[in-house]
Design goal:
Elements: H1 2-27, E1 29-34, E2 39-44, E3 49-54, H2 64-94
Antiparallel strand pairs: 1-2, 2-3
Length: 107
Amino acid sequence: MKNIGQMMKQAQQMQAKMAEMQARLDQVEMTGAAGGGMVQVTLTGKGEARKIKIDKSLAAPDEVEVLEDLLLAAFNDAKQRVESHVAEEMAKLTGGLQLPPGMKLPF
């Protein structure tokens, strides 16, 4: 019975730490860039768009396709940075314990 009680206590502690991490992720900003920095997209640690910066030279009508491609690339770069940051924070939280794919905390 001690083991079950201890496991429950550890699960509650991990859940509290997870809530703290989620709150911190909302404050984190990661910026992705494309086109040598001509397009920048900033996301929160939760993946919500916070800012987009576009070099004025890309605002020309004949540059629309280039701009669209650079926006996608910058967004994907920012998203990858957010995912890497979240993975690092999760590793700190779980002590390096790898969770099965698709399993998310809190339970």
